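Something for you to look into today, if you have time. Could you write out one complete protein record for me, on any chain you like? Leave the record below and I will have a look.
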Amino acid sequence: MSATAIGGVIGAAIDGMSGDDGVGDGAIIGAVTANVLKLVVPMVVTYAVGWAVLRGAEALKDQVFGEVK
């Protein structure tokens, strides 16, 4: 199952718990949320890893060459 379908099923289940109306709008919101997360999560992880590498490289440079003020 794709993330979009799983998001739709989860959104429909959450929306169905309220019992107010149909579950179609919850399914749509869940599917859209799943697609957004498929794009955002890898970008955030990539940014965090890149930031950590830059911080580590800066610390290594300071150890090798001394801290520049």
Notes: The mean pLDDT is 87. The radius of gyration is 22 Å. The helical segments are 3-18, 24-65.
